[in-house]
Structure formats: C-alpha cells, structure tokens
Amino acid sequence: MTSALGPSFLDPEWLISTFGVIGILAIVFAESGLLIGFFLPGDSLLFTTGLLIAGGTYLHLPLWLMCLLVSAAAVLGDQFGYLFGRRFGPSLFRRPDSRVFKQENLTRARNFFAKYGARSIVLARFVPIVRTFTPIVAGASHMHYRTFLIYNVIGGAAWGSGVTILGYFLGQVAFVKSNIELILVAIVVLSVIPIGVELLRGRRRARTGGSQPD
Description:
Elements: H1 12-33, H2 42-55, H3 63-92, H4 103-116, H5 120-123, H6 130-140, H7 145-170, H8 174-178, H9 180-211
Helix pairs in contact: 1-2, 1-3, 1-6, 2-7, 2-9, 3-6, 3-7, 4-6
C-alpha cells in the first residue's frame, strides 16, 4: 500500500478513495490559500486524479468537469488567501514561528512576489509551499484586486487543469496502466520530498542558530 510510505493524508490515492471529489476540492482550496495547507499534496493529488479518471477508478466524472471543479477550487483558495493577507498581513509578518507556521515560508513567498510581480500569482502555482503563501503576500502588499483576479484565474486554470490532464493522458499510456501502483508510490515519494527538504533545512538552521554564542 502506498500509505505505508507515510501518513495517509499524504497518500493521494487514499485521499481520493476515502473522500472522493469533495476531498480533492477541499485539499486544492486549502493548499491554495490557507496557512495550514502548505504541506498538502496538491500536485500529486491532481496528477493522481487524472490517472484515476483515465482508469475509471474511484472517480467517474468527465475529465472536463473535474478540471473545471479543480480550477474553481484553486481560484477560490487563492482568493481567500488574498483577502486574508489584505486583512491580517501586517500582523502576520510579526507572528512568531509555531509548529505549523514558519516565517521563512512567508519570507520566501514575499521574495518570490517581489521578484516576479503579478506573474508570481501564476508561477507560484507550480512551486510547492510558495503557492500557499503567495496570494497571502499579494493581499498584504495590497496588489490591485483586478490584476490579482486576472492572474489568479489564469494560474488556477493552468495548474488545476494542466496537472490533471497530464495525469489523465499518462494514465492511458500502456506502461503507466500496467504499473499504476508503482506510479502512485512514486507520486507519493515525490510529494513528500519538498516537505522533507524543508524539515531538514529547518533543523539545520535551528542547530546553527543554537550553536551561536549569545
């Protein structure tokens, strides 16, 4: 079972088989704009969604409808993140670190936003962790709402539909179809790599900081 690789909430197939379409949409929404959503397996979830639709497993919606729903959830998630950042942004940048909140993630998204400007709303969709915090930074920076909305719709549709469609068409490849379990295991592994890297980097920084003299 792929869930043996880690917590079941990081296993896309388990999430889809357990919660169905509602679970997919909820996770996409959360990862797109909720502070606690950065660890969720957005890319691997959408890719697996496409694979399972192609194979007729768990999901029996038309591909176009699934893409529409996922894109809408992604856009609404970023919308929430933008409004949250606009309302609580200043205090958020002063918030101390906790188990689920790290200032470094917010800082990385702020640097990403400063570098790419409005384009970051689209580009961040394809960067795990950064995509969760970028709409919040955009709101905190008082990015023009209409500009944000345009880029949000473009980014949400490109990411939500693009990754799902990629999974769907790869799911019809003979090798992928005959090795579906192996592919799903690989997806889970890839989905947890960014989280593992962040944890290791955080621990390394903590040790370095702790070894410095007062």
